[in-house]
User: Which sequence fits this backbone?
């Protein structure tokens, strides 16, 4: 056999290897495709269940059994009775954030002048504000987990530190509600009488506020309409509301000079000169006299 014939014979042998047992190769390929298809179907089915939030029936009971102790513990914390906090405890934990320094016009703790208008408004009015919020004051001081009674205790604690003399609310709210209402009404009437006397006293005594002239009232109204109205028109951030005798009474009691000094330098939420930086001291005095004239 020549060399060329030998090479051709070897090439024929190699080609025969590639086509040997074609049926076996075909069925192996089909089996491989079936296995891959089944695996993909299984993975896709489980993935869809997870995306749809479905739990597999054979594992739901075991999962529930595993989380049951934790779930029961959390439920017991929420529903279990806990001792209600005292007014001081609620104040220290929540109310001190604003009332300790008078942030955003909040009446400062222990400041009788700052609390006087609120106490004069009455117990129930104060309580509704404490529970539901008003202006910059959020409901329950921002701590909605507090019980209503805890909020009421904190309110009474702060008011009493400013001279209110409210009765301490107890856990049994059915105890003598009429007596509490009578006491609150008497306190409110007393505060209103004091406010009226203070307003009347503004025309005599050391802190007497002089009657304004027509020119002063005109100038004061002009500045009020331009700047003061922004806060005093609606009582924003604790500003004494225009025309509210009870709100103005404690400020009038301090005298015109003190009020003017506060207007010039600012205090609490009150900015210097009420943001009217171009107003003169006389302009500010006229604006104060104009606002006071509305509550005489």
Assistant:
């Amino acid at each position: 056999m020549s060399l060329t014939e030998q090479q051709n014979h070897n090439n024929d042998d190699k080609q025969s290897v590639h086509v040997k047992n074609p049926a076996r190769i075909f069925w192996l390929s089909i089996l491989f495709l079936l296995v891959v298809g089944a695996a993909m179907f299984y993975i896709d089915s489980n993935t869809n269940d997870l995306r749809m939030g479905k739990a597999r029936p054979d594992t739901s009971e075991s999962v529930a059994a595993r989380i049951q102790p934790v779930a029961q513990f959390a439920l017991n914390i929420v529903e279990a009775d806990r001792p209600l906090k005292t007014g001081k405890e609620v104040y220290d934990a929540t109310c001190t954030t604003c009332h300790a320094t008078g942030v955003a016009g909040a009446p400062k703790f222990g400041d009788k002048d700052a609390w006087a208008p609120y106490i004069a408004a009455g117990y129930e009015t104060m309580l509704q504000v404490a529970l539901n919020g008003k202006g910059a004051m959020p409901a329950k001081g921002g701590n909605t987990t507090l019980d209503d009674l805890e909020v009421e205790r904190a309110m009474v604690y702060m008011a009493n530190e400013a001279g209110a003399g409210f009765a301490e609310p107890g856990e049994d709210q059915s105890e003598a509600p009429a007596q509490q209402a009578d006491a609150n009404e008497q306190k409110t009437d007393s505060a209103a009488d004091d406010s009226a006397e203070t307003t009347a006293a503004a025309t005599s005594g050391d802190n007497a506020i002089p009657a304004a002239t027509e020119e002063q009232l005109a100038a004061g109204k002009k500045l009020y309409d331009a700047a003061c109205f922004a806060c005093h028109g609606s009582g924003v951030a604790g500003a004494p509301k225009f025309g509210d005798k009870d709100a103005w009474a404690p400020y009038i009691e301090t005298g015109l000079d003190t009020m003017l000094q506060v207007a010039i330098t600012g205090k609490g939420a009150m900015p210097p000169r009420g943001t009217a930086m171009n107003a003169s001291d006389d302009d500010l005095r006229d604006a104060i006299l104009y606002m006071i004239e509305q509550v005489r």
Summary: Residues 22-51 form the longest helix (30 residues). Residues 53-58, 66-80, 173-181, 194-206 have pLDDT under 50 and may be disordered. The radius of gyration is 40 Å.
